[in-house]
Structures are given as C-alpha cells and as structure tokens.
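Consider the following assembly input.
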Amino acid sequence: MEAHRSIAATPFIKDPRGMILIENLTKVYGAIKAVDSLSLKVEPGEIFGFLGPNGAGKTTTIRILTTLTKPTSGRAWINGFEVTRQPYEVKKQFGVVQQHLSLDRELTVWEIMELHGRLHHIKSGERRRRIEELLEYVELCEHARRKVRDLSGGMKRKLMIARALLHRPRLLLLDEPTIGLDAETRRRIWQLIRRLNSEGTTIFLTTHYIEEAEALCHRVGIIHQGKLIALGQPLELRLRLGEFAVEVLFDGQVHYHYFQSREEAKAYVRNLPSEIKAIVVRESNLEDVFVELTGRKVEDAENLVG
Amino acid sequence: MLRILWDSYSIWWADLMILKHLWQRFLITSLMSPVLYLLAFGFGLGRGIRVGEVNYLEFVIPGLIALTAMNTSFNGAGMKLNVDRLFYKAFDEILMAPVSPVSVVLGKSLIGVLRGLISSLAFLAIGLAFSPLRISFLFILSLLLSCFAFAFVGVLAALLAQSHQDMSTFSRVVLMPMAFLGGTFFSLEHLPGWLRVTIYLMPLLHSNRCLRAEALGQTFPWISFLVLIAFGLVFFLACLFALRRMST
Ligand SMILES: Nc1ncnc2c1ncn2[C@@H]1O[C@H](COP(=O)(O)OP(=O)(O)OP(=O)(O)O)[C@@H](O)[C@H]1O
Ligand SMILES: [Mg+2]
C-alpha cells in the first residue's frame, strides 16, 4: 500500500444540495412500497451508513441513485445533478459496488477493469497505471489473467470494489461491500474505506454487520419498510435509547431494558424478583438501537442474505 | 458523434475479448446448421430440381447465407445480452457507465454483426466450392445490412425478455417462420396471394432477394434493399425505446 499517493477523487466545488439529496422519494412495486417518502441528505466527506432489515428498501434506494431504477415519485440529486434528468452527469459522480455480483464471467480480471476504464474515458497509460495499483491493493495482481468464473466469491467482490474505484468517484455507494469476505480482508476494506474518506471521497454504505457501521460511520440512517425511522450519529442514537442495557432471561427468552446510567440499571436489577437468575448488565450498542426500532434480530436478517 | 462511436467500440471490445477466448466453438456451432441444410436440401433433395433459370443448389446457397446471417446475428447479439442482463447482472455495468443509449445499442449489436458476418462468409466459402456465385459490392453491403438488422432484433429481444424462456419463445415465434417461409428454400411464385403478402413483411425475404439477385447476376431488387434499411432503422429505434423503458 502506497500511503503517500492519493487514489481518491480530486477536490471539487461544494454544492448546496450536498453529496446526496433525496426528497420524498417513493418507489412502488405493485402493492409494495419499497421506498416510502424517503428524505435524506448526505454531506460531502461523510461516511454514511444505511441500515435496515431485509426488504427495507436499501438496495432500491441505491438503484434509484445509480439511475438503474426510476422512482415512482420524488427526486434525488448526486452532487447537485438530478438522477432522473441528468443521468449522464450523475454516472460520472459515483462508483458503486452492488449487493449482487455483477461481473461478466467470461472476461478476465484485467479485462473487467479495462472495460470500466474505457467506459469512463480514462486514457490508456493512466488506465494501466491505475488498474495495476488497484489490483495490487486488493491482492488480485497474480490473478489478473484469470477469468472471473474461476475466482472465489471473495475475490469477485474485491474485484468489484477495485472496479468501482477506478474512475476515482467522489461518491462511493457500497451495498453490503464486505459480505462473504474473511475477517482480515474485511478489515482491509474498512481501512480502504477510511483512507478513501480521508482523501475526500464520500461514502454511502449499507450493511447487515452493525459493528461495521458502528466502527466506520459518522452518521447512520435506519430504514424500515421504506421509511426512514432514525437518523444520527451512532453514539447519539445509542444515548437516545439508553447508554446501558440489561439483558434478562425470563421464560426462556431474553428481554432487553435500557437505562441512562449504570446506577439506574443496577437499581432495576436489584429490584428484580429473586427467581430470575441470568442477568447481564452492559453498555448498549448500535445493534440494540436497530433491534428496538425494527423489531427484528439482526442475526436473522444476516442469514437471509445471499 | 465521435464519442458515441468510441463508446460503442468500448462496449464491443469486451465482447471481442470473449469471442477471442471462444472462437473455435463459435465457428463450429454456427456453421453446423447451414452445412446440414446444404447436405439435406441442396444435395439430398435438390439434384435435378430447377427453380426458373437455375438449378436448386445455386438457388438455395444464397438463401442459406441469408439464413445464417439472420440466425447468427440474432443469437450473437441477443443470447449473451439476455443472460448478462437477467442472470449475471453484468449489463448493469454498461447501464451505469456515462455513455449514451445510442452507444449501448450499437455496442451491443456489433458483436452480433461480426459473428453474423464471419459465419455467413465462412459458409459462403463452402458454398463457392459447389456453385459459382458472383460476389459484388452490393452483395456484401446487403449481407452487412442484414446482419445489422437482425443483430438489432437480437438486442431488442434481449432487452424486452423477462426470462431466458422468452428468448427461445421469441426465436421460435419470429425467427423460425422466417427461416421456413422467408424465401430461403423456395420461390414465392406458386404461393397463394395472402401468404405471399405475409411473407413480404418478413425482413429475411428481403435479405434473400438482395443476396440471391446479386449472387446469380439477376436485376437487383432496390425496393427490397430499401425495405431492409427501413427494417434496420425501425429495429434500432425500437432498441432505444426498450432501453429507455427498461429502467423502471
Ligand atoms: N424489481 C422488483 N420488483 C418487485 N418488487 C421488488 C423489486 N425490487 C425490490 N422489490 C421489493 O422491494 C422491497 C425492498 O427491497 P430492497 O431490495 O430494496 O431491500 P433491501 O433493504 O436491500 O433488503 P436486503 O437487506 O435483503 O438486501 C422488498 O419488499 C422487495 O420485495
Ligand atoms: Mg439489499
């Protein structure tokens, strides 16, 4: 890794509409409102986490931002360009790693990168230099001549990440970027996200790993059934729920209670009936916030993702 | 304009790389059916039969070239695009690139055109061994035009299809009747009027008329040539429309 050389976007003029502006966005599929009057603003330089259970509408939102899907109503802008009216400009602003693999299996790793570079009009010398650099960063150099069909799942995902960075977008949209990656690679990706961010790239990511959001994101938004139900810094959301959590095993089920201070939590525990034995007192976390708001266990959600 | 062509080339480039990886398989599969037709109809059936001035073998070879151009261009452009769009989502990469819809349609058609040209010219080379054909500029131009028209049909079908099944349904309902009735295997003289009118609506008939007239040194059917151009344009515009409608 060459820390001295920037791989992120060049600085730019700030738009009053922020990096992402979403206004009253709605997407209806038949009887389902996949996105329901969503409004949201992401400022340049942020790492924003977009959380929500399966089917909440995260991918649909990203598809609208990336011009793949047209909204039923409402508007959205990326860096001041409106997604439905200026798709050409919008496409130059973002890089995206989609939730599902979206690679041509018959092409080689190098060809995948090369195609992306050509489509984004990067000159051939510069293209070659950047491809080498990115493939090295995601450790795919030795596999450059292999076809995508012969790669492992994690290698494919790393390739998608490298591809999204090739044209140095100002905004990086990541739809569950670390799914299926081993622990070490995931850390590397986190590092990469932080590095890109420190060099000026705005990051918008979805994830089912709440600790990932907590570790990375300046702000998170929680979406449930197409609606934004919480927005703020992870710590802020935690404090709103209660800084301390008490887990109580009762009737074979774990019940959660939240308190603003350790004293309140301890007082609660002292007053519990004596037949309740298994009790945990701990600091609350973002996952508590998520589960309280969406009424679902995150582990359940995780297991459902392809 | 230059940008549009350059972007089309970029899109085509990726398909060229794949063709380079798989060209032997491609050549064998696309030559299979015309060679079988040639053996079955040309030799098995056609010895001694005469169609107007010429013997059947001379009659059928230009038709088989048009048929090959149609099938290979359609499949070459459509089949992979269909799978890429619906199954591997690789088409998203093109849809999210800052390139114009014209480049997307053109770029995705070119591989069909190229494959259509390669296999029909390869078949032409085989045909030349059995029958003296006249290869003129107009012959090549008509062939190129046919490849474009049917490659656009392939792209159109791939953009409209909701499943892989739709693709083969399309090819059975639209291409197969053309293959059997579109003037490849027989001349239309003895058909009832209503059927002849229907067949005149088939693009393949016009490819057949152009190619056959040039190959056999007959008067060139300029009307068919223009009709072929018109079909190509309509299919191209339909592709643009389908592309616009797709992002819902
Ligand atoms: N093309 C489509 N046609 C019909 N319904 C769709 C389509 N795409 C998404 N939906 C529906 O929209 C809702 C939101 O889906 P979306 O993929 O945006 O959820 P998500 O938040 O990304 O979920 P996950 O965490 O599972 O990826 C779901 O109910 C889904 O069934
Ligand atoms: Mg999703």
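Chain A touches chain B through 29 residues (CB under 8 Å). Ask yourself how this observation constrains the way the partners meet.
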